[in-house]
Amino acid sequence: MCGIVGLVSSGPVNQQVYDALALLQHRGQDSTGIATAEGRVLHMTKAKGQVREAYRTRDMRSLLGTMGLGHVRYATRGTASSEEEAQPFYVNAPYGIILVHNGNLTNTRELTRELNDVDRRHLNTNSDTELLVNVLAHELQQQVLGNELFPEQVFAAISRVHERVEGSYAAIALIAGQGLLAFRDPFGIRPLVLGRRTSGLAGDEWVVASESLVLEAGDYEVVRDLAPGEAVFITPDGQMESRQCAANPRLIPCSFEYVYLARPDSVMNGISVYEARLRLGDRLANTIAQYAPTGNIDVVMPIPDSSRPAAMQVAQKLGIEYREGFYKNRYVGRTFIMPGQAERKRSVKQKLNAMSSEFRGKNILIVDDSIVRGTTSQEIVEMARAAGANEVTFTSAAPPVRYPHVYGINMPTSRELVAHGRKIPDIARELGADHLIYQEVADMQAAIVEGTDITELEMSCFTGDYVTGTVSPEYLEWVEANQNS
Ligand SMILES: O=P(O)(O)OC[C@H]1O[C@H](OP(=O)(O)OP(=O)(O)O)[C@H](O)[C@@H]1O
Ligand SMILES: NC(=O)CC[C@H](N)C(=O)O
Ligand SMILES: [Mg+2]
Predict the structure, then answer these.
(1) Distances in whole angstroms, Cα of residue 99 to Cα of each of 78, 136, 330, 386
(2) Residues with CB under 5 A from ligand 3 (ion)
(3) Cystine design at 166: which of 88, 107, 191, 298 (Cβ 3.0–4.6 Å)?
């Protein structure tokens, strides 16, 4: 999963893009990039690592202009360590386009063939984002008649992009001298929200971002989430036009955003992430009460950070004391989105430590938001026991992750998932827990969508049902065979 932001402003945008990326850091830690447009001139800088270390003062000074975009990457395709695959991606025709993308394309083999053999475009990396920007450039080229680009031409090109590209994509592009374009795939799998601020411009100042917290921090008013399939085009002087460009748009947002990825203070598709996590806790508490004797449990404990809201609700609903027994080192990033299992495993120990006074002789009920590879949970159970815990009941606010996620979360192969092909008691043994309780799929769905008119969620990693056509068993085998990290 990645974080993206785009801005059309009345003044310099470089610092605003930087600040937004720092707020989106939890969505990707592999690499980052910023691009700006100063009239027809594009500026770009990208680097490996996190936002705070990646940019030097001289980089920031060179990012001139009043339109800009930025990216924090959590690689799902290609390699996390590759600087060539860091985003944004640039193509020089038509006009000069720079694009950032959150998501993962699933028909990459077909697109690579078409772009090479039919469109005759050069591809230099294994990144699916490079495919996306080239499809967009090719389709825009088909529309272009003169020096000026009209919104109708942009929207016609995006309709073609929707026809050709499969998978998930929330994307933002700068088109040199013309404007800023943002679009969301026809299922709205990945998030994208639009905000506005009044200014001295003929039009308003605009922002598009993965999460609403960026809008709040910059004092932007939330206009709305982009609709699935919709494209928005904003000129440098702040005139905005939008159009539905997909033939059959259907909102099916990713459930994992609410479970783990997004920051709790964001609102996505009208759903507060924090409140969704509280409701996940409520429902998990009901399941725990149904399946496990809770009479002998002394304390409920979260695994910081993401499971705190759910754990608070579990404790409250079950009437058991809530205690924080794990101290988290705030200088270590999120472990799940790190590339490579060895680094993830080392980081859990670097990140969490158990305080023995909270564990000695007690029966502990641990709540995590999800169990994916089991890296965190195994270490946690070991730490709890080493700290003197008596019985350890492990619970997950999400159902078992049994299938690969191919829409922008890096869990592409089933063999690395601890729940794949295992029954619950076997998983419990694998994790070393005395009891293991997961959320039910129907409860997760109900908890997330409660109070909205959203009827479908992208839940393939829990159910094995993929919403886009190309995801066949053969495709999953191919992904597995070509996995890089
Ligand atoms: O089963 P696993 O493969 O270990 O993955 C699941 C864990 O990874 C995440 O934590 P992370 O440390 O990334 O971030 P957090 O601080 O937001 O909880 C998530 O919250 C789980 O704790
Ligand atoms: N997590 C993402 O959104 C990744 C975007 C893109 N697929 C990449 O690997 O760079
Ligand atoms: Mg965690």
Answers:
(1) 17, 10, 32, 49
(2) 306
(3) 107
The share of the chain scoring above pLDDT 70, in percent, equals 97
pLDDT tens-digit map of 47-63: 999 999 999 999 999 99
Which tokens in the block code for residue 330?
A: 């705030």
CA dihedral angle for residue 50, residue 52, residue 54, residue 58, rounded to 10 degrees: 170
Choose the weakest-confidence range: 130-144, 249-263, 288-302: 288-302
- pTM of the complete model: 0.95
More confident residue, 336 or 481: 481
CATH of domain 273-451: 3.40.50.2020
The pLDDT of residue 412: 66
Token output for 392: 């350890």
Among 127-136, 181-190, 467-476, the minimum mean pLDDT is found in 467-476
At position 291, the amino acid (one-letter code) is Y
Total residue length of the chain: 485
**Residues 192-227: pLDDT tens digits?**
999 999 876 667 899 999 999 999 999 999 999 999
* CA-to-CA separations, 56 to 3, 90, 308, in angstroms, rounded: 20, 21, 35
Q: DSSP E strands: which ranges in 226-269?
A: 230-234, 240-244, 267-268
Question: Of 370, 434, 395, which Cα lies nearest the Cα of 284?
Answer: 395
- 465 assigned binding-site residue: no
Q: Please tell me the CATH superfamily of domain 3-251, with its number.
A: Aminohydrolase, N-terminal nucleophile (Ntn) domain (3.60.20.10)
Q: How far is the CA of 394 from the centre of ligand 1 (A)?
A: 14
- CA–centroid distance, 180 to ligand 1, in Å, is 35
Please tell me if the CB atom of residue 191 comes closer than 6 angstroms to any atom of ligand 2.
no
Cis peptide before 12 (omega within 30 of 0): no
Neighbours of 319 (CB within 10 A): 9
Centre of ligand 2 from the C-alpha of residue 143, in Å: 28
ipTM: 0.96
**What is the distance between the alpha carbons of residues 65 and 45, in angstroms, rounded to a whole number?**
14
Sequence-ordered list of residues with C-beta below 8 angstroms from that of 346, at least 6 positions apart, any chain: none
Name the closest-CA residue to atom 21, ligand 1. Answer: 370
Q: Which residues contact 335 (CB under 8 A, 6 or more apart)?
A: 344, 347, 348, 351, 375, 376
| Pairing between β-strand 89-91 and β-strand 31-38 as defined by DSSP bridges | unpaired
- The residue extents of the domains of the chain are 3-251, 273-451
Q: Closest ligand 2 atom, CA of 129?
A: 6
What pLDDT digit, counting tens, does each position of 405-447 carry?
A: 999 887 768 888 999 999 999 999 999 999 999 999 999 999 9
